[in-house]
């Protein structure tokens, strides 16, 4: 099993269990104890888990939002496909608002050599968008300011919100924490919801990018109703009833 696959499996196991031992992971992953211990040290440094004697403990409390390091391991193939599809929906020289989160970071990776002007809402996205300095075709960056959320490295607060609202974007790419057809787009906290709302309300078109795990998930803060959305890019195929409701709302669905 490859290192990345082991890390994803360990992350998945710790979403379901409070604690797991090295011996159990050796059996699950088919790797040596030394390899598993190295994996746990790496994942602990990324905020995925906490090392304890003989194993690891989950950092995900029941009902809480998993940390960025945990989410980064999950649904990686789906996020890559979503990022490819989102890139195809953008036109050169567009002004784009890009949400924060692990899906948004993957999208930033795809946009690193596009001729766009982008306001990314996390330093993780900035890192990908600003690294290819030798390329003559890279995005122009607008940084929102505000405060940074530790771990997430995302911009928050009234300064960031005001700077977003002072501009007009061709497209907002929103990565909700949860989505359902009754409530719409949801976030785990009020500050994140306010930033997402500012982004989508400042754009002519709203693209929602979300993996299937976000559908009908739990989150407490309302961002916007579904009628604010123009396109949803996801790896989950909606039911016939959901397709009808989305069609009635004039929401295009791109399935990857």
Automatic annotation (TrEMBL):
Q: Which GO terms describe its molecular function?
A: DNA binding
Superkingdom per UniProt: Bacteria
Cite the HTH deoR-type domain residue spans from the record.
Answer: 3-58
Q: Which InterPro entries match?
A: Carb_Metab_HTH_regulators, DeoR-like_C, DeoR_HTH, NagB/RpiA_transferase-like, Tscrpt_reg_HTH_DeoR_CS, WH-like_DNA-bd_sf, WH_DNA-bd_sf
Query: Transmembrane residues, as ranges?
Result: none
Q: Which UniProt keywords apply?
A: DNA-binding, Transcription, Transcription regulation
UniProt cross-references to SUPFAM superfamilies, sorted A to Z: NagB/RpiA/CoA transferase-like (SSF100950), Winged helix' DNA-binding domain (SSF46785)
> What name does the UniProt record give this protein?
DeoR/GlpR family DNA-binding transcription regulator
Organism the protein comes from? Arthrobacter gyeryongensis
């Amino acid at each position: 099993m490859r290192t990345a696959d082991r890390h994803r499996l360990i992350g998945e196991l710790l979403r379901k269990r409070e604690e797991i031992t090295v011996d159990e992971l050796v059996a699950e992953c088919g790797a040596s104890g030394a390899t598993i211990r190295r994996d746990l040290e790496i994942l602990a440094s990324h905020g995925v888990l906490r090392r304890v004697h003989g194993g690891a403990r989950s950092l995900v409390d029941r009902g809480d939002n998993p940390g960025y390091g945990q989410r980064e391991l999950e649904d990686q193939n789906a996020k890559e496909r979503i990022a490819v599809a989102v890139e195809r929906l953008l036109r050169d020289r567009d002004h784009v608002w890009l949400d924060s989160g692990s899906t948004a970071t993957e999208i930033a990776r795809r946009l690193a050599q596009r001729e766009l002007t982008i306001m990314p809402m996390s330093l993780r996205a900035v890192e990908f968008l600003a690294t290819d300095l030798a390329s003559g075709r890279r995005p122009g960056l607008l940084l929102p300011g505000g405060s940074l959320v530790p771990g997430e490295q995302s911009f928050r607060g009234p300064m960031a919100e005001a700077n977003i609202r002072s501009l007009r974007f061709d497209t907002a790419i929103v990565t909700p924490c949860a989505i359902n057809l009754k409530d719409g787009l949801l976030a785990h906290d009020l500050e994140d919801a306010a930033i997402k709302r500012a982004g989508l309300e400042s754009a002519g078109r709203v693209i929602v990018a979300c993996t299937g795990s976000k559908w009908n998930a739990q989150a407490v803060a309302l961002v916007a109703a579904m009628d604010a959305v123009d396109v949803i890019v996801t790896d989950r195929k909606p039911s016939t009833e959901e397709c009808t409701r989305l069609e009635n709302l004039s929401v295009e669905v791109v399935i990857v």
